[in-house]
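To the wet lab folks,

You asked to see what we're planning to order before we commit. Fair enough. Below is the target structure as tokens, and below that is the sequence we designed to fit it. If anything looks off to you, flag it before the synthesis order goes out.
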């Protein structure tokens, strides 16, 4: 078997999507983002081929916090168990080290035990688990009185509220955007405040951003912390804000173990999925 990893090409699309389109019962997101990923210069997409035939892929993306994000690993069913996923992963981690990434992260569906074992063999460790929740289809949202957008004059207080929160600790200190995790470092919190993505009321804070996959556009609660009725009020506010683009879904990312999960369930939210966040340091030298 002659196997090698190389950069993805436009001509690989048909061969790879011929099996990827069947993953997760036909609901895999790769077909929606392939063209976008191929053009995106914030990351690199790779293909593993066997005897000249493309049979797998993955992507590494470099985020604003200095981290490298591994995603989209797919191997044709007939070629699994041959170490090809590890070849793709090692290639991406070498690139991450060369680019000076400070940490490498990836996620896996919480029930994919086989993937977890393979990830562990690449020296990743589990750091948190998060669940994505969606409101019921009949739910209605609108801006709420008392909720204010955070400005830089309140940055120090808001930073302390975020970093000192239970959700920050349970969630390994990240916020979520289109199922990728970015560190809530002081510099990133400042960036989020300056772009207008942070709201507060009382002792509660939410980070909310527009996101999506391919043509799908989402409203997202990327990080949420607080007590009593305040977090729910923040969600109702940011989900109720008018958007220039039509939104196909609303998603709230909550770390497992947070009491906010009970609040969501009590108010008609249901779990979309749960994922495990893994991370490791880049290789030295």
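Sequence we intend to order:
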């Amino acid at each position: 078997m002659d196997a090698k990893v190389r950069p993805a090409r436009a001509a690989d699309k048909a061969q790879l999507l011929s099996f990827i389109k069947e993953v997760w019962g036909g609901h895999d997101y790769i077909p929606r983002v392939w063209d976008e990923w191929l053009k995106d210069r914030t990351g690199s997409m790779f293909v593993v081929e066997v005897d000249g035939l493309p049979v797998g892929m993955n992507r590494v993306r470099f985020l604003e916090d200095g981290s490298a994000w591994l995603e989209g690993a797919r191997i044709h069913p007939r070629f699994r168990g041959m170490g090809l996923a590890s070849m793709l992963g090692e290639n991406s981690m070498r690139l991450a080290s060369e680019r000076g990434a400070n940490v490498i992260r990836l996620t896996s569906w919480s029930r994919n035990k086989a993937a977890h074992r393979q990830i562990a063999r690449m020296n990743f460790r589990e750091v948190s688990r998060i669940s994505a929740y969606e409101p019921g289809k009949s739910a209605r949202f609108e801006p709420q009185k008392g909720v204010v957008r955070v400005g830089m004059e309140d940055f120090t207080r808001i930073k302390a509220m975020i970093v000192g929160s239970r959700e920050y600790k349970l969630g390994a200190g990240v916020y979520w955007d289109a199922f990728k995790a970015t560190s809530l470092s002081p510099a990133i919190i400042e960036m989020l405040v300056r772009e207008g993505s942070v709201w507060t009321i009382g002792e509660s804070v939410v980070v909310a951003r527009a996101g999506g996959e391919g043509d799908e556009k989402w409203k997202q609660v990327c990080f949420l912390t607080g007590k009593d009725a305040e977090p729910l009020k923040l969600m109702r506010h940011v989900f109720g804000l008018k958007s220039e683009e039509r939104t196909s879904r609303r998603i709230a990312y909550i770390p497992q173990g947070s009491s906010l999960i009970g609040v969501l369930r009590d108010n008609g939210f249901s779990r979309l999925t749960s994922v495990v966040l893994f991370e490791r340091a880049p290789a030295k030298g």
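Structural context that might help your review: The first helix runs from residue 13 to 20. The two ends are 30 Å apart (CA to CA).

Thanks,
Computational group
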